[in-house]
C-alpha cells in the first residue's frame, strides 16, 4: 500500500515527502517529524505512542539501535491488575495478548526510513538492501518511498530465510532437504504437521490434491512418498511462485501441477490434504493469513467442499491444531458438527505434541493453552 505522508497540523500533503509503503496495509502516520542521532529514545517513544512518525535522517545503524530501545520500552511489564490472573479466561488472555502485540507493532512502525527509487537508502552507513527489497516487492519502480524500519528489517529477515532455507527431515538427508520460504509466505517451522503427513499411510498414491500449498512442503513430502500426481492450489501468487521454486529445486515439479484458485481444483482425488490456518481470528497483516482464519472460513470451506472432491473410498486429511479449543475460540463439538454436516465420517486420527519453544515457555501469556496443544491429522471420508 502506498499513500502520501503528511502532517495533520498542516492539513495538506508535505510535497517534499515521498510515498508511504506498507505491505501490511497500515495507514501512514497522521503526523511526521524529523528525527536523527540526537533524538532520545524517551522522546521517540513518547512521540511514537502518540502516533507521530519519526522520519529518520541520521545514521542507519543508530536508527536500528533506536528501534531496539523502543522495543525494550514496549516490553516493560505493566502494573499488576487487582484482578487475579486466574480470573482471566483463555479468550480474554488471547485478546489481551493480541491487543498488546498490535500496540507494540504500531509503536515500532513509527520509525520511518527513506528509500530511493532504486531501493538504495540515503542514510549514513546504510547497507545495500536492494536484493532483499527486489525479492519482496519486485523490481524497483524508480519512485522514492518511505517505509517503516521494522517492515524493512522484516524484508531483510525474509531474505535471509530464503537464502538459508528450512531443513525438513521428512524430505531426506541434508543438504537436499530444504524449503526456501519467500517473503509473505509462511515458513514451515512447525515440523510436527509435516511429520504427520510423512507418516500417515496412503491407500491410493495415484493422485492427491494439496489445498493451500504455501511453500510447497506438503506437496514435496507427498511426491517423495510416491504419489504419482499432485494438484496443488493457492490463492496467493507469491505462494505459488515459492512452491514452484522449491519443487523445482527438489526435482519434484514434474509431479505437481500448481493452480491459482480458492480451495479446490476441478475434479476428484483419492487423497485431499489441507493444512488450514489454525486459529479463528482476524489477521492483521498478509503473513498472518497463514495463522489466523477469521470465522474459520478456510476450515469450513474445506470441510463443506471435501465430499464433492473425494473419489470413491477416498480420504481427506485435515491437519489442525486444537490450540483454538484451549483458547476458547472454537469447541471440539463445533468441529465435529461441521464434519457431520458436510456428510463426512471420521476414519481415524493421528496426534502429535508440538515441539516448538513456546510450548514449554511458562512466561508466554498463552502458556496454559499452548502446554495442552495437540496437532492432529483427521482422516475423513464420505458418509454413505
From TrEMBL:
Pfam family, one: MTS
All residue ranges annotated as the Methyltransferase small domain in the record: 197-318
InterPro entries recorded: DNA_methylase_N6_adenine_CS, N5-glutamine_MTase, SAM-dependent_MTases_sf, Small_mtfrase_dom
Record-level GO BP terms: methylation
Keywords assigned: Methyltransferase, S-adenosyl-L-methionine, Transferase
NAD keyword on record: no
Protein known as: Methylase
GO molecular function: nucleic acid binding; protein-glutamine N-methyltransferase activity
First and last residue of the signal peptide: none
Amino acid at each position: 500500500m502506498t499513500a502520501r505522508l503528511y502532517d495533520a497540523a498542516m492539513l495538506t500533503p508535505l510535497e517534499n515527502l515521498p510515498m508511504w509503503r506498507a505491505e501490511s496495509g497500515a495507514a501512514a502516520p497522521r503526523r511526521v517529524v524529523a528525527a536523527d542521532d540526537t533524538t532520545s529514545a524517551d522522546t521517540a517513544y513518547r512521540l511514537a505512542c502518540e502516533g507521530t512518525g519519526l522520519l529518520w535522517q541520521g545514521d542507519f545503524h543508530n536508527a536500528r539501535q533506536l528501534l531496539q530501545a523502543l522495543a525494550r520500552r514496549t516490553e516493560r511489564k505493566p502494573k499488576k491488575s487487582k484482578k487475579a490472573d486466574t480470573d482471566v479466561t483463555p479468550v480474554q488472555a488471547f485478546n489481551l495478548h493480541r491487543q498488546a502485540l498490535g500496540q507494540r507493532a504500531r509503536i515500532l512502525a513509527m520509525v520511518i526510513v527513506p528509500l530511493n527509487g532504486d531501493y538504495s537508502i540515503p542514510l549514513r552507513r546504510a547497507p545495500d538492501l536492494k536484493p532483499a527489497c527486489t525479492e519482496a516487492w519486485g523490481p524497483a519502480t524508480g519512485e522514492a518511498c518511505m517505509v517503516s524500519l521494522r517492515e524493512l528489517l522484516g524484508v531483510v529477515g525474509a531474505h535471509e530465510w530464503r537464502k538459508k532455507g528450512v531443513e525438513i527431515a521428512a524430505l531426506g538427508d541434508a543438504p537436499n532437504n530444504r524449503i526456501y520460504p519467500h517473503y509473505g509466505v509462511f515458513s514451515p517451522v512447525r515440523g510436527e504437521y509435516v511429520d504427520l503427513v510423512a507418516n500417515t499411510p496412503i491407500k491410493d498414491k495415484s493422485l492427491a490434491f494439496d489445498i493451500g500449498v504455501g511453500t510447497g512442503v506438503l506437496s514435496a513430502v507427498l511426491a517423495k512418498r510416491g504419489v504419482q500426481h499432485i494438484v496443488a492450489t493457492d490463492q496467493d501468487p507469491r505462494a505459488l511462485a515459492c512452491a514452484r521454486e522449491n519443487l523445482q529445486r527438489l526435482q519434484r515439479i514434474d509431479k505437481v501441477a500448481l493452480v491459482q484458485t480458492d480451495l479446490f481444483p476441478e475434479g476428484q482425488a483419492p487423497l485431499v490434504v489441507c493444512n488450514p490456518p489454525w486459529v479463528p481470528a482476524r489477521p492483521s497483516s498478509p503473513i498472518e493469513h497463514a495463522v489466523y482464519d477469521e470465522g474459520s472460513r478456510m476450515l469450513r470451506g474445506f470441510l463443506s467442499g471435501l465430499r464433492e472432491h473425494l473419489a470413491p473410498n477416498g480420504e481427506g486429511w485435515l491437519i489442525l491444531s486444537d490450540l483454538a479449543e484451549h483458547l476458547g475460540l472454537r469447541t471440539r463439538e463445533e468441529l465435529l458438527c461441521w464434519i457431520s454436516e458436510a456428510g463426512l465420517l471420521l476414519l481415524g486420527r493421528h496426534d502429535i505434541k508440538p515441539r516448538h519453544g513456546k510450548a514449554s515457555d511458562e512466561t508466554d501469556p498463552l502458556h496454559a493453552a499452548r502446554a495442552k496443544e495437540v496437532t492432529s491429522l483427521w482422516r475423513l471420508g464420505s458418509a454413505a
